[in-house]
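Bug #77: duplicate submission created two jobs. Keeping one. Sequence:
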Amino acid sequence: MSGPVAGDPSRAPAVRDMFARIAPGYDRANRLMSMGIDQLWRAKALRLLGEAKRGDMLDLCAGTLDFSIALSPHAKSIVALDFCAPMLEVGRQRLPNPEKVRILCADARDMPLEDGSIDGIVAGFGIRNVPEPHRAVAECMRVLRPGGVLVVVDFFRPESWMARFFSATYNRIVLPVVGGLVTGDSSAYRYLAESMAAWASREEFEKMCTDAGFSTAEGAELFPPVAAWVRATKGGNTADKSVR
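Kept job's structure:
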């Protein structure tokens, strides 16, 4: 089965349909493919949010709501936004306290949220799948309050030789084999591998953030170096109490 072409701006409907197909097995595939390390990556993202995670949070490209669940003990409120309704529905059934989470099926490029209404945004492995990601980053800038924080964890295009080695092994072997066996849709995981190769490097994404108006943007590789994080802050008077 042919899939959407990574990097094609018109691919959004095909990507949404692809995620709808794999939604039932998505979480199990993630745990197996990362051997549980993705949970450590998410814990790092929560630390990078600092005090922002205690305010009004946006789980962007929320998928099956892993970050919303992790944020539940901390946040004042959570908006979980994704463009794939079946993924959100799988996540809704996992929520420990659904009254705290507002679920929105919407496009990251045009969020139905008020200007300056969010203290922190976390995006796990999702902005890479948004056509015109610069528009999603601009929307993050718009909805954040002054001093707000954006933390992105993703499979950025690797630059170092070690990251390229790990990424190539992961993309060519782990993703299509394990993802295909668990979900029955190897074409979806071939697309995900292609999307990593077509995606921005971490440094390019940091520049995308500062071009959108964020006052700072910095990041680093995670371990193993198939993923990395970027933390961007919106200028303003609110104290930036980061936790590293």
